[in-house]
């Protein structure tokens, strides 16, 4: 099987996923608006900022960007389970096409949607007064780390989607994803928490990305230094790579074993 064939089939699958945006605009809009609502809710209704040196909105926006990338796992899992429930993936497997194209197309479309989500949430953050004070190179690096986290999370979503098999079981995963997402420094610093909880929060992969992008944006961070905070950039790369090393082969192996 030639590389050109794989690329062509993967692009076909990507265009299929993108076509769903036009046919299901409400789902797309809800996916973009929900993080904005979260940002407004925590920024203005709930508030926060204990242990933060600076404006809370400049602490909150990078955290919300990281949280949105992590919560993208649910959208990926839902899409995979819907295709499985309709028998779409089985039909693709029976067609004369690259088997890798199904997963590549899924991941490419999800990354494009995530990039759009980043643009929307960043725009809202700018309207609220948030500013990236770092250099252009640092700002681009921050967005690259956010997308790296999303790339790792989408492969977790692909694997869990194939394991679950049905959209109804996505809710069971949400019970786990949401606590992990909120058990981070997206909204508050570890110093504002009990010591044992703050330690758990510091080592959350989402916290590593949030801290790293705050540093790159030159936004306020936690007041007290720690090893995890001082090496946030290293952890923001290491955690996604570790997750990819685990879940990418698991997802590929699960896909190849389907129907046997």
Explain what this protein looks like in three dimensions.
The structure is a single chain. Helix 3 (56-86) runs antiparallel to helix 7 (170-182). With 260 residues, the chain is mostly helical. It has helices at 3-23, 25-46, 56-86, 88-94, 100-128, 136-164, 170-182, 195-202, 205-217, 227-230, 232-257. The model has no long low-confidence stretch (mean pLDDT 81). It has eleven helices and no strands.
What keyword list fits this structure?
260 residues; mainly alpha; 11 helices
Offer a quick outline of the entry.
With 260 residues, the protein is mostly helical. Helix content is 78%, strand content 0%. It is built from eleven helices and no strands.
* Range of helix content: over 70%
Profile the largest sheet.
Answer: none
Cα distance spanning the termini = 22 Å
What amount of the residues lies in strands?
A: under 5%
| Shape type | globular
Individual helix count = 11
Helix and strand sequence: HHHHHHHHHHH
Uncertain segments of ≥5 residues (pLDDT<50)?
A: none
Structural class: mainly alpha
Mean pLDDT: 81
What gyration radius follows from the Cα positions, in whole Å? 19 Å
């Amino acid at each position: 099987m030639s590389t050109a064939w794989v690329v062509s089939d993967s692009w076909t699958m990507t265009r299929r996923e993108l076509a769903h945006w036009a046919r299901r605009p409400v789902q797309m809009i809800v996916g973009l608006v929900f993080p904005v609502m979260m940002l407004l809710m925590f920024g203005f209704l709930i508030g926060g900022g204990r242990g933060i040196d600076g404006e809370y909105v400049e602490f909150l926006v990078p955290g919300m960007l990281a949280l949105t990338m992590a919560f993208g796992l649910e959208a990926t899992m839902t899409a995979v389970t819907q295709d499985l429930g309709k028998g779409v993936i089985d039909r693709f497997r029976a067609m004369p096409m690259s088997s890798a194209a199904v997963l590549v197309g899924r991941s490419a479309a999800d990354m494009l949607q995530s990039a759009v989500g980043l643009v929307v949430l960043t725009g809202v953050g700018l309207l609220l007064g948030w500013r990236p004070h770092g250099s252009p190179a640092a700002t681009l690096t921050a967005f690259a780390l956010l997308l790296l986290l999303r790339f790792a999370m989408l492969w977790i979503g692909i694997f869990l989607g194939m394991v679950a098999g049905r959209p109804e079981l996505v809710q069971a995963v949400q019970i786990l994803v949401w606590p992990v997402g909120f058990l981070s420094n997206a909204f508050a610093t570890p110093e504002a928490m009990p010591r044992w909880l703050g330690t758990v929060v510091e080592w959350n992969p989402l916290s590593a990305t949030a801290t790293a992008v705050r540093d790159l944006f030159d936004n306020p961070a936690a007041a007290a230094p720690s090893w995890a905070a001082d090496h946030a950039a290293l952890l923001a790369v290491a955690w996604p790579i570790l997750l990819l090393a685990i879940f990418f082969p698991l997802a590929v192996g699960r896909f190849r074993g389907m129907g046997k």
